[in-house]
Amino acid sequence: MAALTPIYRTPVTFYVPVVAAAGALAGLFVGTAQGSGLLGIVAGAALMAALALAVTRVIESEKATRWGMAALFVAGGWLIGGAPGLILGAGFGWFFGWFTFWLYEGRYRAKLPTYLTPGQVLWHFTFRVICGAILVFLITPILVVMPLSFNAENFFTFTPEMLRLDPAGYSLKHYRDFFTNDDWQQALRNSVMIAPVATLLSVSFGTLAAIGLSAEHVPFRRPIMAILISPMIVPLIISAAGMYFFYSRIGLQGTYFGVVLAHAALGIPFVIITVTATLVGFDRSLTRAAANMGADPVTTFFRVQMPLILPGVISGGLFAFITSFDEVVVVLFVGSAGQKTLPWQMFTGLREQISPTILAVATILVGISICLLTVVEMLRRRSERLRGMSPG
What we know:
The protein is mainly α. It is built from 16 helices and no strands.
């Protein structure tokens, strides 16, 4: 009879302090919401350290621990925060039940090379925790805005009805106001009229500039590249002020064409960077072969080069479109009341009207941005497959 493989157990001095640290982090959020972050840290660390030691020495069953912790945290969440606390408590309990045994049974090293030292393992997970914390810090404002856009009242804060998850506290009134209000619809029309044309100009000029600057025989390639991508580096207020003084001299200030050119200038750097990155893996012998077969430069570009760099061109165009659609500083300087775009209307609503419709518009823009970024990611993966950098 074959001998049973012993199960590896990590020392108590390792997994209990780590679980306690995670509990302190969770306690910080809960305690801050209740008015005492320090008390939350201490209570969270002590509670999770005691639970981690108890479940691994007494229960020794991960499934039972998950259900038990979930039930315990659900009860605590209900007492502290009502229905929202109940939901968060269930999530916290389930996570800590898994996290405790993930550390206790040493599963955290299952997918890591065996030769890593404890310090390297620590840095491996510390780096991921830091990245996750930064992501949460960036995403949290968006996650707060989205439910607030369904507020039944004209408030920018969560009402007691919303916190109780009462259906009466939620409404689509702000979305209806956006789709029926003439000012918002005019701003939307202006944005839709400006952003696509600016994107078309950005893609046209940016693609040609990237192809030209990718040629090795072009002199002063680096200085020219630095100048073309400078709108991404120079503070936007400086670019806007410079455009205002320049456009006022040539008669473009306050015109539709002036706003389009300004947004095109802001979008060109994104197109140049994405197309240049795509051209890194481009086989230039294909264009020489097309020339040897009698194809002129225009035919070579559209029939040979463009299909291969198309993912980079579309990605740059999407970034240019997002930049134009969301831009507000430049249009305030070079535009007029007739070119009031959607971000401009949002800025006006914050400064003058304090309209909660802004939250609904922000949620719609977030949804559009997510869709466009999803397309960009799909195009990036397709580009890598075409260049042989990833499996099909």
